[in-house]
Amino acid sequence: MLLRIWIVAALTVGGLSAGCAVDLENDLEGEPCVVEDDCWRTQECSRTPEEAQLNLFGTCRPEGTVCIPGAQLGCACNPVDPSIGCLSSALPGELNASYPSMTCDPMLLRCVIAPPGGGT
């Protein structure tokens, strides 16, 4: 009888532990961040020095993602390729509106803040 109680208790604790092992990697990908702790353990806060200097959020991305080309200030871009031409930021919806307009600098091939009224 005592053995049965121990087995039931072990299975209950094991089941509870398994239920708590939630993987938030997909849920947090692309979410705004300022530091690594804002992201899941398998992610990092992809925040460029330019974004940090302007107190802008970065985004949670898989480890090893330095920045998102064509979508973050300071990242590589191509002025003739709209998919990486700095036309919009990597931030989600409502925060995207607070991100400065960017353009792809044709000399540096980096996303920079667009001149007032200039845009891309």
> Strand percentage, roughly?
15-25%
Largest sheet: 3 strands, antiparallel
Mean of pLDDT: 81
Total count of strands: 5
Percent in helix = 25-40%
* Structural class label: alpha+beta
Give the helices and strands, then pairings.
Elements (H helix, E strand, L loop, with lengths): L1 H19 L4 H4 L3 E2 L9 E4 L2 H5 L4 E5 L30 H4 L5 E4 L4 E4 L7
Antiparallel strand pairs: 1-3, 2-3, 4-5
Tell me about this structure.
- The chain is α+β, with helices and mostly antiparallel strands.
- It has one domain (about 25-115).
- About 25% of the residues lie in helices and about 15% in strands.
- It has helices spanning about 1-20, 25-30, 50-55, 95; strands at about 30-35, 45, 60, 100-105, 110-115.
- Strands 1-3-2 form a three-stranded antiparallel β-sheet, with no helix packed on it. A two-stranded antiparallel sheet has the order 4-5.
- Strand 4 (about 100-105) and strand 5 form a beta hairpin.
